[in-house]
Amino acid sequence: MVLPPAIRRGYSLRREPARAVAELHAAIDQPDPGLIVFFCSSDFDLEALAAAIRDRFGERGVIGCTTAGEITPAGYMHGSITGFSMSAADCRAVSELIPGLSDFQMVRGHEASERLVSAFMRDDRDLNPADTFALLLTDGMSTNEEPLVAAIHQRLQSVPLLGGSAGDDLRLDRTHVYHRGRFHPDAALLTLVKTARPFRIFKCQHFVGSDTRMVVTQADPARRVVIQINAEPAGREYARIAGLDMRQLTPMTFAENPVLVKVGGDYYVRSIQKLNDDGSLTFFCAIDEGVVFTLARRRDLIADLQGNFDAVRRELGPPDLVIGFDCILRSLEAERRQVKHIAGRIMAENNVIGFGTYGEQLSAMHVNQTFTAIAFGAARPG
């Protein structure tokens, strides 16, 4: 009997890098991997961690990033390293590093995408959206996810794309992606994956629109700062409309009271990162003047999450793997509402490996406060 191609998942809570990587390696190593992905806490000594990964896995074929929390085979963790491997019989992957995101130009995104596609097709692989997808891991502090995703999408067109912005455990200082044996700040990592497995990309968002609207009247999109809403100081006006006290404007409050924008008939969350000393608001996405915000109404996070996984199971059966990108603000809300353990159990039951992000990428958009994921069904008979 021929065994089906393998997907292997694992994690480690050990704090010493060599031991953590050894434990992860023991769980996910396989003879002929086509793709190895890990997500790790930024609390690790990253140089020592990179050396341990090179020692155990080699320099090629391994990608990853730092996080604001990890999703492991045991559910949500903090301070861990988690990851998975897919066999070469399951998938083939090619990656391209895009450095210097803080000074990003659209042409560099086009060029990187073109190099990646050329490398991908050299091995006689066609760029077929039915069996190929793009995975994007990017610096979560560059503030350039929007032009990056737009540039990539222009080249990849119908190839589905998803990903997440790396985190640094809510320090909001410096994040990293991992490629060819070392961690890179201020960079993005784009990977094309061709897989023999059926897959489905989906998004969970438990916020819907209300009848309450407001207009951005002054903004600095390059810094993702909104200075005025309705011609009033942004923080004060947002608090008034949301029925909050200015002293309540904490990351937890922002997580539970986001605003939405309507694009193409659908609502997308625009999450607030922080209140600044001058009363302005910094967002996790670029915001232009004239944008109309809708105050969000919240649905049940757990019911929405379970409903989406139920839909995945109806289409694919129980997933063998889900790569998940979970906005850190969802995690904060789940903690506040004391349901994070339930969400973690749902993740574990559906074989999710992922991380807490500073934003999610989906198709041509950089989005916030979603769980964006790709689910893989059982391998097709060979």
Describe the structure.
The structure is a single chain. By secondary structure, the chain is of the alpha+beta class. It has nine helices and 26 strands. The longest helix is centred in the N-terminal third of the chain and has 17 residues. 51% of the residues are buried.
Task: Report a brief summary of the structure.
With 382 residues, the chain is α+β, with helices and mostly antiparallel strands. The protein has 9 helices and 26 strands.
List the main descriptive attributes of the protein structure presented here.
single chain; 382 residues; alpha+beta; eight-stranded antiparallel β-sheet; six-stranded mixed β-sheet; 26 strands; 27% helix
Topology (SSEs and partners):
Layout: E1 7-12, H1 17-28, E2 33-41, H2 46-57, E3 62-67, E4 70-72, E5 75-77, E6 81-87, E7 91-99, H3 106-122, E8 132-138, H4 145-156, E9 161-165, E10 176-179, E11 182-185, E12 187-195, E13 199-204, E14 207-220, E15 225-229, E16 232-233, H5 234-242, H6 251-256, E17 259-263, E18 266-270, E19 272-275, E20 281-283, E21 292-298, H7 301-316, E22 321-327, H8 328-336, H9 340-349, E23 352-357, E24 360-362, E25 365-367, E26 371-376
Parallel strand pairs: 2-3, 8-9, 22-23
Antiparallel strand pairs: 1-6, 2-6, 3-10, 4-5, 4-23, 7-12, 8-12, 9-24, 10-11, 13-26, 14-15, 14-21, 15-16, 15-20, 17-18, 17-21, 19-20, 22-26, 24-25
Helix pairs in contact: 1-2, 3-4
